[in-house]
């Protein structure tokens, strides 16, 4: 079990540690004068320490920064009367250390694995039956790959070192191939999960190999790899289909055009949150439970499990923090892993159910409303500027004249529709937990929310 | 930037070519969407069906938890004789039972709790626990020689529905929609509904891998209709978005997407346009499907008193008929609570009360509409229950039966299956399937056969090998086919 701070907690911890180091240094300076001793001895070994209460001596046997609050308290108490200034320094340090302990206790606890002492006997199991043991086996790596150092213990640490040894060709290739998939939709080896005999061969073996060696050479720096990929001529090509390319290479395996594919559902959600300004871009911390229709867990478990939705900023954190239950995944995501085995290949399908999610789920309706609010507050009074800003926030480009005309035409109609039905405007603006700016005109805001829902559902908004 | 008309035209031609020929491209996957496109409904795999189908669609009434064949359909007078006596060792020696039973040696036989009678012209034995099913015995084909390899619920259910006890393979409904495509343009081709009797103490969780598409494209996974809220997740437009508002937004969404398509010619954009159109249609078609107010009373009566209550098996049975009528391919109803380890004399009665009339009503309703001819209805669980007791024979209120994979009963109706017959038999204590044994893979092969599919030829290559619903096994049970 380890404790894993999130980025806020990490910042606090850093601050506290700095304070503790400074306070401990002050205590140390006093103690050096107070408890004179030989070089290399600790304060408890000083002549001055002789005859002090046992607990005080015990505390003094450690450096000030290594003492726990109770130990610091013992020394502090002992000198409170006689040496108030020293005692006050100890008190400050004690409070800081106690605060750090408290903070650390609030960190999420994460399970980690550890080797047990000695090795467990392992056997080939006949047809996989747990009680049908055949010959005993021991840990070794595949013979087609570099060997483990002869003297290395056959444990997880050796395996980890072996995996990232610069002479190991596979790890880096598998990694860069997955990153390639992230940008191009398909790996250079399409079977990203399988580089073995049943995997597909790479379309561009030299490129894969080069990327892998660059990756190793650059110290396994993923950001550098991403830069290498996104600044390449291949990545920056137009995604436009031509008749010729469509005929010769419909799946674009030969990379004759730039990548264009529907984003995975978690990315679509993150994108909507980011464009609308709702995203809470904080690192780390426990999983969160964003919006989910009522009763989904209960129905799957006969009421044994109930989903209790989080509140506040937890609703707007990146999708990767979303809590997953194995029997039923988060309903807002589609084309998700089946949660039976590890899956690394992207699955992209299209069904009307996806459209229903991005049109109707609270997350997206609220994002439309927030995006509308964002442009109403920031883009000046002109409808064209407002629509343009919303469009740009989502697609990263300006709408052309034809597009803008359609957007403004729709906006005018939406305004009419909501003017005729202010109740509907109020209802639309109350979807989602985030507060709305009530200074904005409700009809205007609702009409823009409708327009933003349109923009967030554009093919271009859902597509990389 | 727009293409010149000639380039545009040839790009379009290529798009069609691509849709038609590629089985892996994103366009093809998208086009063959969950909901097909009207007259041209979503196509299945090429060359299917392999031969003239007897059934076009399936309603699978999955009885989750394993109904007791001994008390419901598999009548063995000898059980009454041996009631309270130890199970004869020669029937169970060397067999594996659940860890609750462990070694069956010395377990006492338990007589069926209610009397059996011969029913209809066919004279099939059905317990008094199932009066409505008894009433349609002449429409049913009982398979009394079923056996499976799994002794625990989840692996056994998974084995029945996906052909493998390990979760992760495509389920039967996914295979069928993959093979045969869809015949509806505004409803899911493969739908799942679940229910459980009120107050049951033995319901098992419904894992969503029971209707998973496994390694098949995920658009083929079963769509779960929910018992509360929107039947389909996210079906309702948000508060404050009226139908005209939505319509207008979608119209302009399509226009903008078309502009984009003109620019980049990506066929996925066309697919996206139709996907949104279908979503809009579905927002009308699902509520229409769920609205049973136009059903006449005499039809509602067929399904029993719970039919109007969402989330009940009766309601789901009626919904299954309505889905089938509207072109759905595979409807999987799962009803939990059949796991009577200590409630044969109590909760079993509730289970039968809640499922007997709706199941029979569904068959009758399909029959009176002429739908039974090409709709296959299947009733059954994942295994049977031990003919010997679990619990103390002196404490009748707590009598139970444990899991039993070696013999159990299922029934089929319609869809090209011989009506009014009983296929196969278990031994005289209903312990082992002995005559015309039907393995789970045989059962699956037969279902596919009835739908015009050679189970050995409906396959999908994944991780270097071709997979089938029936793995490398399965023999069609020809004897039950009309």
Query: Which architecture of chain B per CATH?
Result: 3-Layer(aba) Sandwich
What does the radius of gyration of chain A come to? 31 Å
Q: Over all CA atoms, what is the radius of gyration of chain B?
A: 24 Å
> Termini distance of chain A?
38 Å
Kindly state the mean pLDDT of chain B as a whole number?
90
Estimate percent helicity of chain B.
Answer: 25-40%
Shape of chain B: globular
Question: What this model shows, in words?
Answer:
- The complex is a heterodimer of chains A (464) and B (482).
- Chain A is mainly alpha-helical and 464 residues long.
- Chain A is built from 18 helices and four strands.
- Chain A has three domains: 2-110, no CATH class; 169-248, no CATH class; 262-464, no CATH class.
- Helix content of chain A is 48%, strand content 3%.
- In chain A, the strands form two sheets. A two-stranded antiparallel ribbon of chain A has the order 1-2. Chain A has a two-stranded antiparallel sheet with strand order 3-4.
- In chain A, strand 3 and strand 4 (133-137) form a beta hairpin.
- The longest helix of chain A has 28 residues, at 7-34.
- Chain A is globular and about 90 Å long.
- In chain B, 59% of the residues are buried.
- In chain B, the strands form five sheets. In chain B, strands 1, 4, 5, 6, 7, 8, 11, 12 and 15 form a nine-stranded mixed beta sheet that branches. A two-stranded antiparallel sheet of chain B has the order 2-3.
- In chain B, a hairpin with a 4-residue loop joins strand 2 and strand 3.
- In chain B, 33% of the residues lie in helices and 15% in strands.
- In chain B, helix 9 (243-264) runs antiparallel to helix 10 (267-290).
- Chains A and B meet through helix 9, helix 11, helix 12, helix 15 and helix 16 of A and helix 1, helix 2, helix 9 and helix 10 of B.
């Amino acid at each position: 079990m380890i404790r894993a701070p999130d980025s806020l907690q990490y910042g606090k911890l850093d601050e506290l540690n700095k304070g503790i180091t400074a306070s401990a240094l002050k205590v140390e300076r006093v103690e050096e004068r107070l408890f004179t001793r030989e070089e290399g001895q600790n304060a408890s070994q000083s002549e001055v320490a002789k005859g002090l209460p046992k607990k005080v001596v015990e505390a003094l046997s450690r450096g000030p920064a290594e003492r726990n609050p109770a130990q610091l308290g013992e020394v502090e108490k002992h000198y409170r009367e006689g040496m108030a200034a020293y005692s006050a320094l100890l008190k400050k340090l004690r409070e800081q250390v106690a605060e750090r302990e408290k903070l650390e206790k609030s960190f999420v606890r994460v399970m980690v694995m550890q080797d047990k002492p000695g090795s467990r006997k392992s056997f080939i199991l006949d047809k996989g039956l747990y009680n049908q043991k055949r010959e005993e086996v021991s840990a070794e790596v595949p013979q087609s790959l570099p060997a483990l150092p002869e003297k290395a213990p056959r444990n997880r640490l050796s395996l980890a070192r072996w995996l990232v040894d610069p002479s190991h060709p596979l790890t880096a290739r598998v990694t860069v191939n997955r990153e390639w998939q992230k940008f191009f939709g398909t790996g250079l080896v399409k079977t990203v999960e399988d580089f073995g005999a049943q995997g597909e061969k790479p379309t561009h073996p030299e490129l894969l190999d080069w990327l892998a060696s660059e990756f190793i050479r650059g110290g396994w720096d993923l950001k550098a790899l991403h830069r290498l990929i996104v600044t390449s001529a291949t990545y920056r090509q137009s995604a436009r289909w031509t008749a010729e390319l469509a005929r010769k290479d419909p799946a674009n395996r030969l990379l004759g055009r730039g990548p264009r594919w529907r984003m995975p559902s978690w990315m679509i959600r993150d994108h909507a949150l980011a464009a609308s300004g709702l995203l809470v871009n904080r690192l780390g911390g426990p999983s969160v439970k964003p919006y989910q229709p009522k009763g989904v867990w209960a129905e799957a478990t006969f009421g044994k499990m109930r989903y209790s939705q989080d509140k506040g900023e937890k609703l707007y954190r990146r999708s990767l923090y979303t809590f997953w239950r194995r029997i039923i995944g988060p309903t807002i995501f589609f084309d998700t892993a089946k949660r039976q085995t590890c899956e690394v290949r992207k699955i992209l399908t299209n069904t009307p159910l996806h459209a229903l999610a991005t049109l109707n789920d609270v997350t997206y309706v609220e994002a439309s409303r927030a995006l509308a609010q964002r442009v109403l507050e920031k883009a000046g009074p002109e409808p064209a500027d407002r629509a343009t800003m919303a469009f740009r926030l989502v697609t990263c480009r300006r709408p052309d004249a034809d597009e803008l005309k359609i957007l403004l035409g729709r906006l005018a109609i939406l305004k009419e529709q909501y003017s005729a039905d202010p109740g509907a405007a109020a209802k639309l603006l109350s979807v989602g937990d985030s507060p709305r700016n009530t200074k904005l005109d409700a009809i205007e805001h609702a009409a823009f929310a409708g327009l933003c829902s349109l923009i967030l559902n554009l093919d271009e908004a859902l597509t990389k | 930037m727009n293409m010149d008309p000639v380039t545009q035209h040839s790009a379009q031609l290529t798009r069609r070519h691509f849709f038609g020929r590629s089985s892996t491209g994103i366009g093809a996957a998208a086009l063959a969407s969950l909901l097909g496109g009207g007259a041209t409904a979503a196509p299945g795999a090429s060359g299917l069906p392999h031969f003239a189908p007897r059934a076009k669609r399936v309603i699978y009434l999955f009885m989750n938890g394993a109904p007791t064949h001994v008390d419901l359909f598999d009548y063995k007078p000898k059980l009454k004789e041996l009631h309270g006596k130890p199970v004869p060792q020669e029937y169970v020696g060397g067999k594996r039972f659940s860890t609750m039973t462990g070694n069956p040696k010395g377990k006492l036989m338990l007589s069926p709790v209610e009397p059996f009678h011969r029913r209809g012209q066919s004279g099939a034995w059905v317990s008094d626990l199932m009066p409505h099913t008894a009433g349609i015995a002449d429409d049913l084909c009982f398979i009394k020689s079923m056996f499976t390899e799994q002794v625990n619920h989840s692996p056994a259910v998974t084995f029945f529905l996906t052909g493998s006890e390990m979760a992760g393979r495509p389920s039967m409904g996914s295979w069928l929609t993959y093979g045969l495509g869809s015949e509806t343009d505004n409803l899911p081709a493969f739908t799942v509904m679940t229910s459980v009797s009120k107050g049951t103490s033995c319901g098992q969780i419904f894992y969503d891998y029971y209707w998973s598409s496994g390694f098949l494209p995920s658009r083929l996974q079963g769509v779960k209709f929910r018992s509360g809220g929107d039947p389909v997740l996210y079906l309702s437009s948000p508060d404050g978005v009226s139908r005209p508002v939505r319509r207008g937004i979608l119209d302009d969404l399509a226009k903008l997407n078309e502009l984009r398509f003109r620019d980049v010619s990506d066929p996925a954009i066309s697919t996206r346009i139709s996907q949104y159109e279908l979503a809009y249609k579905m927002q009308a078609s699902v509520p229409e499907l769920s609205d049973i107010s136009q059903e006449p009373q005499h039809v509602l009566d067929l399904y029993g008193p719970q039919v109007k209550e969402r989330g009940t098996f009766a309601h789901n049975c009626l919904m299954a008929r309505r889905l089938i009528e509207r072109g759905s391919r595979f409807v999987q109803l799962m009803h939990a609570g059949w796991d009577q380890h200590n409630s044969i004399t109590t909760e079993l009665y509730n289970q039968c009360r809640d499922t007997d009339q709706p199941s029979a009503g569904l068959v009758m309703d399909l029959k009176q509409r002429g739908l039974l001819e090409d709709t296959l209805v299947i009733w059954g669980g994942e295994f049977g229950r031990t003919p010997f007791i679990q619990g103390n024979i002196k404490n009748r209120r707590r009598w139970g039966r444990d899991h039993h994979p070696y013999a159990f009963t299922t029934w089929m109706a319609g869809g090209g299956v011989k009506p009014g017959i009983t296929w196969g038999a278990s031994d005289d204590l209903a312990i082992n399937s002995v005559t015309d044994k039907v393995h789970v893979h045989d059962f699956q092969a037969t279902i596919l056969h009835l739908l015009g599919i050679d189970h050995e030829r409906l396959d999908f290559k994944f991780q270097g090998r071709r997979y089938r619903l029936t793995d490398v096994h399965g023999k069609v049970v020809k004897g039950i086919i009309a």
